Every structure is written in C-alpha cells, then in structure tokens.
Sequence to fold (227 residues):
Amino acid sequence: MMKTVLFDLDGTLTDSREGIVNSIKYALNAFDYEIPDEDTLQLFLGPPIVESFQEHCGMTEEEARIAYKKFQERYGTLGKFENRVYDGISELLTKLRAEHYYVAVATAKPEHFAREILDHFYLTPYFNLIVGADTASGLIHKEDILKKALNLSRQPLQDKNGRRIAYMVGDRKYDVESANALGCISIGVTYGYGAESELLAANAEYLCDEPDEIAMTLDLEEMMVRR
Fold:
C-alpha cells in the first residue's frame, strides 16, 4: 500500500518570496496604496492574495480583486520565476519516488502558475499529482484544495490496521490545520514563511527545520509502523 506525501509549494518546495512581494508592490503602486512594512508583507505569503489585500491594505473585496488582476499582470510574466528551489528538495523528492511514495502538490497558488513553476525548475516529473487553486470554480482555500488532492489521488488515508499513511508538508498554519482536519499527519517546516510558534499553535505533529528532516520524519514514522 503506497504512502502519500502532499507538499505545499511556496515556502515548502520553493522560496518564492521575492516574486510575490515584488508583484504585490507593483499592484499597490499602480493604485497608489501605501506599501506595508516587511513584516506585514510576509503575511501575504500563504493565504489567498485577494484576502490579504483586504486584511492588510483595507481594500473592499471588489478593490482587492482589481488589485489581484494587477498583481497577476507582473507575477504571471516575471514574478513566478523570481524564485528558487530550497536546498535538499530535489534529493528529498528523489528519495520519496525511489521508495514508492505517492507524491503530490496541494497549493493555494493558482494551478497553472504552480505547473509552470514546477516545469521551470524540472520538478514536475517527481509528482504523481499537482492540484492548485482555481478561482473560477471557487477552489481557493487550502482545506478544499487538499481535499480535492486527496480525492484525486485515490490513495487511502489509513492502512488496513488503521494507521495513518498520508502526510501534508507545509510552512503555514493553513497547511497544518487543513491536514489535521482531513486526517493527514501534519508536518510543519520552519525554513519557510511561517514562524515555529504559528505551526505549534496550529498543532503540527512534526516540525522540520530543513528538507533532510522531512525524510528523517518519514523514516521514523515507517519504523513506528513496523513496530
């Protein structure tokens, strides 16, 4: 029976801060909004951008959607590639595929952007499935995206003995909370955009400071199952 590992993208597989923040500033400048401080801009990394514009810039929903279109104007051409793969990720994915895990991406980034980024960095072949947001169909929030990924994977959450065999790896509370709500084992990574305190408050079952520790955590889980 295959075990399943689902990954967030931004802040987990790749460091996309530069492209996202530059595109947020581009959108805000276009409409003469004040640029938030760096700590506030960090909060844009993870949740839907439209909601972040409302929460952190005082926009109405309509204003936020207009600003998001301007954000996409830059992000869709340049910002998505102002990005880098975290050290150790390729090695981790190689190990998972060699050990016959079912490997997927579940990201709140629009799916077409996620696919372009994974293609750009030659990561696509590592994944059995890639699921992202789709605003046209209302697929926006992480729990709904993760639920769709789990359904499409057709992989069980538990083995025949009732032991959980699906993992969600992410850097923000949204990843952890969604994993916990849907019955996955939640692995929070501290090298991304969410603070350790945020991940602990969301009840992450494991914390990993670097990609190597994700592999160690999965190996530990495997040893516990065998016992």
